Amino acid sequence: HISSKPPPTPSPLRSAKFFQANMRILVTGGAGFIGSHLVDKLMENEKNEVIVADNYFTGSKDNLKKWIGHPRFELIRHDVTEPLLIEVDQIYHLACPASPIFYKYNPVKTIKTNVIGTLNMLGLAKRVGARILLTSTSEVYGDPLIHPQDESYWGNVNPIGVRSCYDEGKRVAETLMFDYHRQHGIEIRIARIFNTYGPRMNIDDGRVVSNFIAQAIRSEPLTVQAPGTQTRSFCYVSDMVDGLIRLMEGDNTGPINIGNPGEFTMLELAETVKELINPAVEIIMVENTPDDPRQRKPDITKAKELLGWEPKIKLKDGLPLMEDDFRTRLEVPRKN
Ligand code: NAD
Ligand code: UDP
Ligand code: UDP
């Protein structure tokens, strides 16, 4: 029996070239610390074309120098508080200063970046039908009243404090993501990132790991902010990037905590840095800043179950990798 149906005619749009089309990925904030490591990973896949949009507030072209001029890479100086008209398949929306000294420097700009910036990226996602991932933060849990924090916890956040531009900003960003999802059917992903460290962190950004490592290398006292018993959980940046990509590629909207559950007091962290980098250095207690969360540790059950993800790099192994990068940038070689 011969089918009476005519053979399918290949449409020009369905040519091999069309089907092998690259995945075009926008990374906002891609010149920053986590963003540039994410770009490195995405660029490893030859099917990916990566576009970075960044205003260089806390990021730098230097973080992307190995990709500038690459045919699958494009860098745009752009502020996400302004509309952006491009064609993409996926958006990793990271643009936002992450370190307290930078986000408190211009709090109005920080909240605009979180609210108007996220609105614009959602408008873009809606127009082109792209999937969008927001890097939210553990700060949405504020000074948490439950420990460890799982995603169902609504948080304990001061709406009028000096950190509010950041943590309330991210909370609104999450709300916008879900409203666009429910109202317009946008495919969304929300990662709640816990403290992340690694090479390319700004040396003087005031965050604890970068401070302690720079201080130890410069043989300056390690400044533990009182009381020193407050805790954090630190995730190495390659683990973070792996988690973000799994979340983007998977089927779950989140929010999903991505972080390392290993919990340390700031005094323990100072002792560890001292032991690994400079046993001669002094540890001193200094005044803290307002609204400093007393404890923070992710419950990563969801990430394990839904993404098959958990961090691999222990703090003791990650710190020396960061030390190498800081020594190169500070031009202080290791003593033998
Ligand atoms: P980062 O400051 O190194 O990177 C942020 C990038 O965004 C920078 O390149 C900066 O220039 C850019 N940017 C800021 N405002 C912008 C604007 N209006 N328009 C365009 N670009 C803008 O910070 P990071 O540590 O890489 O953080 C990346 C993301 O992860 C942020 O959204 C942050 O809130 C989130 N996050 C980070 C941590 C962490 O521990 N590093 C923890 C929780 C959440
Ligand atoms: N937007 C953008 N790029 C686009 C589409 C929209 O930056 O490709 C911005 C747009 O300027 C607006 C925001 O995203 O400020 C929200 O867009 P949406 O279409 O959802 O809302 P509206 O324009 O109707 O307010
Ligand atoms: N911290 C510290 N010494 C420093 C910088 C920070 O002891 O030089 C403490 C700070 O009080 C906080 C913790 O380290 O309890 C983490 O601070 P960071 O600013 O790195 O991140 P976040 O507060 O956003 O978690």
Please state the overall shape, judged from the principal axes of the Cα atoms: globular
In this structure, how is the largest beta sheet organized? Answer: 7 strands, parallel
Number of strands: 13
- The residue ranges in which pLDDT falls below 50 over 5 or more consecutive positions are 13-18
Give the class from helix and strand content and strand pairing: alpha/beta
User: What distance separates the N and C termini?
Assistant: 82 Å
- What does the average pLDDT come to? 93
Strand order of the largest sheet: 3-2-1-4-5-6-11
Percent range of helical residues: 25-40%
Features:
336 residues; alpha/beta; 10 helices; globular; binds nicotinamide-adenine-dinucleotide; binds uridine-5'-diphosphate
What does this structure look like?
Keywords: Decarboxylase, Lyase, NAD. This protein has 336 residues and is an alpha/beta fold. 36% of the residues lie in helices and 17% in strands. It has helices at 16-19, 33-43, 100-103, 107-128, 164-184, 208-217, 237-249, 266-277, 301-307, 315-330; strands at 23-28, 48-54, 73-77, 90-93, 131-137, 188-193, 196-197, 222-225, 231-233, 235-236, 256-258, 263-265, 283-286. The strands form four sheets. A seven-stranded parallel β-sheet has the order 3-2-1-4-5-6-11, sandwiched between helices. α2 crosses α7 and α8 (266-277) packs across α10. Residues 13-18 have low confidence and may be disordered. It binds nicotinamide-adenine-dinucleotide and uridine-5'-diphosphate (UDP) (2 copies). One uridine-5'-diphosphate (UDP) binds at residues 83-85, 119-120, 123-124, 126-127.
